[in-house]
Every structure is written in C-alpha cells, then in structure tokens.
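Minutes, project check-in
Item: structure for the 176-residue chain
Input as provided by the requester:
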Amino acid sequence: MPTIGVAIAVPEPWASELQGFREDNGDASASLIPTHITLVPPLDVDDDVLAGVEEHLGAAASRVESFHVRLSGTGTFRPVSPVVFVALAEGEGGCRQLEHEVRSGPLAVEATYPYHPHVTVAHHVPEEALQAAEEELAGFECDFDVADLSLWLLDDERGWQVARRFPLAAAGGASA
C-alpha cells in the first residue's frame, strides 16, 4: 500500500537552502523530505485507487489558476505542535483554493488540524533548536510562481519522491 502526499514543491535555490537549514538544525528526517507546502499530508492508499487519485489531481489542478507565493519570516505551531515554519506573506488564497480542490473525491479525508499553508523548517528537534530556527530565519524571504502541484510517493530508502506533476490553469485564463 503506497503512502502518498500532495504538495507544492518550493523551487531552487530556496528548496535546498531551507532543506539544508533543516538538516543543519538537527532534523534527522530532513534529508528525506524535500521543501514543500503541504496540500494533503501523508496518506496510505490502495494500489488500485492510485490511478483515480491521479485523475482527480489532474482535474483539481486544472480548476485553479497559477499564482504567486512570497515566503517571509517565521511562525510556529507551538505549543500545539513542535513546529517552526516559514510563513506565506502572499499566496495563501491560492494554496487554500488548491487544498480545497484536492481534498475532495478520493482524497476527501478529515484534517487533523485546520489548513494553514506553510513551509516547515524545524520539526522533531529540541526546543532550543526550534527557537533557533524561528530566530535565524525570521528575515528569510523569497518569491516564486506556483504553476503545478505534485503527487509524492514515500520510498522507504530515498524518502519522498515526486511521482507526477499536475499543471495549474494559466493565470488569467479560463478554468475548466
């Protein structure tokens, strides 16, 4: 039974920069988790449903126009969850629309927490490392355009790997 996730990949050079920071900050699993904005968290699916999931993601992506994201500064989910993240200063609406579209049909699973788009930079580390991440990345900023979403598969040895990308509708164009 494959484990999947659906996310927006953060492009280079920021993806490597943030992943390297996460690794250097002591997150042992960081090398297996590419830098991303989660749309659907890890989910086990039956092999026979995977084709339907891919069809669903293609249709969902086609209903959302590409959009711009600006990451700026940090935030945290503490004390509820020991996570520090880089925050979205722009693009939250596009992420929410995309999350709404993909979390239906075969991916209509109940969320553990309300959706809050972000890029995790510290998780499963001591409190001191969480605090350091929050402070050290407080001035982090980058901009990029989101033109697709990705279906990720968890490989036991290589970590999360992109299985397929689904293009969003062109900005300013008619959606399907």
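Outcome recorded: The mean pLDDT is 94.
No further action items on this chain.
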